[in-house]
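User: Please predict structures.

Assistant: First:
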Amino acid sequence: MLEVSESAVDQALAEWHALHPAMGVCALLPEAEKERVALLQRACANRGVPLVGAIFPALVRDDAFATSGVWLLCFDHMPYAALYENLPTDAVGVERVMDEIAAGLRPQLDDTPDITLFMLFDAMVPNIATLLDGLYLRLANRVHYAGVNAGSETFQPMPCLFDGNRLVQNGLLVILLKPHHGAVLEHGYHAPGKSVYATSTEGNRISQIDWRPAFEVYSEMVQSQYGVEISRENFYQLAVHFPFGIVRANHHVVVRIPVMLGDDGSLFCVGEIPPNAVLTLLQSPTVDSDETMRVLLDGIHASGGSADELLLFYCAGRRMHMGLEAATGELHVFSGCSGARRVAGALSLGEIGSSTNQGYPLFHNATLVAARWQ
């Protein structure tokens, strides 16, 4: 990790460029350093180095979270990367932009046995799951799917994705890594037995659960299962500790964190809720942290190659849910047990991955995403 100064950045770029003339950079910046994007763009332009990157609430540095500095992740050869802004939400617009993205990617897909499509979304994009569906329909299992959301932890709109010339919002940055074995994603939640149905949904909004106002049912579930009274007054303090789990047909649980309460009793989550989804209620004691670490580390070691430098993205909602001490403890275990010389990453606002290798991409909350860098 570097100090975000012209001298430090230029020196690093000069040293790498001398060794790898075709290099490129993916920069991870914390929100507190967001004004330094222009500095990075100037430095890379002066050296003729391609640049892409994103702004996150904080960075991951080995076994700790950091709110200053920058990660400059160096590619020996700059891979294909493309930045799209102002993604549409209407059906026609979604089809158009998915065709455009796929058209850019297809010529890059060759006989390389393992290719990863790494995606960085603005967390304010409301239809990420729909966009992932569109990509999978066009590319199927020709790539591994992985990615995370960037942006502000306040969930206020903020330009957070950039390349050498632009800083955009409501967008998507795609990077095609090859050869690359994909990422490992895990949250360690186990669903309680009681479940309900999201009987009226639209995007990330749940209007009704079991044909009743969503918040009414949600507050009753929190009270009956965990003995906690949740109200309009304390919703924003407590809801992060009681996320929903979407129970899929294979019994895997996809976490959705409620982040906003509507005047009509509807609930807004980070990520879309499918119509008639089977929902259960989760709580932090149901997180199996040991299992989470085991799955991540086993996946990293199974992918082969050097684990000297690893990427790790940690969900901001999970950190709020578990508390800073427990979250930092997970970083410490991962960093220590992985054997990596360096762990670089960020605090993310939603994660993308699949439960099986080259499986269907899903949008998650409250997970950790780990991968080899190259």
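Second:
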Amino acid sequence: MEKLLPVMLLAEVLLTPPPAPGVAEGSVSPRQQRSLVTWTPGEIRCRGTRLVPQLLERPLASLAWGNDPSGAPITYAFDIDSSGRTFNIRRTGKESRGYGSGEIAPALAASRFAAGQGYTDCSVAYTASQQSVETAPIGDLTAYSINAIAGPLPRGAWDRLYAGSTCRDERALGLKARVFPDFKALPATPGVRDWSLIGYDIDETGVTTNVRTIDGTGNAALDRASEKAVAETRYYKGGVQGCRYPYWRTPAPLPAPPAPDEKDFLPAGSTCPDDHGWTVRPNLVFAETYRRRAIEGWAIVTYDVAPWGEIANIQVAVSQPSEDFGKQAVAVLRSAKAETRQGHVGCIEKVKFVMSADPGSGE
């Protein structure tokens, strides 16, 4: 009974480069100010033994209002397979979610450990830090400007990022030719959107000079290609210093762990046919926090069908690489209406969340 509901979405996530700073915001109260929220992981332990990851991907930062004290840490449990990949990711407590906490599990899913024996009963706690954009680390502001998941940075942040620059709005110079790297020729990291921020000056003739990488995720090939692209970019006018331009490589899809046969989870006493059909097809929506990282997953869910077609009693039998795919599968089925006249109990579906075949490139 291989019934699949594939969720197909484009892996390419194109965001515009950082905009020119807007008008001054004026005087605002602390609770009206924007702050940057970051989540920092603590030690990782598996059955009491400390484990050092090869890559511990940081959750994407978010923007919040005000500067309220951070809540309690949020702890996740997970396992590690023999290839070094994390799976079976789930929250262990019922703490309040907090700004940006939905980015934690996808970041943990994109993390990697050394291949070997594999581990079970692993855990890590993430602690939130909420700082005003006037005091947050420049590196964190830069990273957020590339992945602005909660709206653009306010003026105060751009003032800090462009401190000492005479190149706040390069559009006034007139762009003669913007050169881009051949993104598809560059390596992509599964589950991670690599980026390079290039700094440069523009001489009086519109030629870029002093080109260098000033920040990024450490993708050396992307850094080199980005520097070359900026070095070949030309303007009609110049005479400015401290320009910045970002390039990024969209993530390579991170395939889902192998899925079992859903028949192994068929409820006892099931009266559901192999294919009951749909009068309203399920609304196949990929969870945004996983879509932007191109992380694939699946869930096996059981449910009943009322005689009028309503889906009820939806239960998640198993989902991977995290419990979030099970929650999303429940939402997918709730949007549907089955084709039936008598109703059924013990139905089962495998919902697969799959990125498109073309992972896109970058910007």
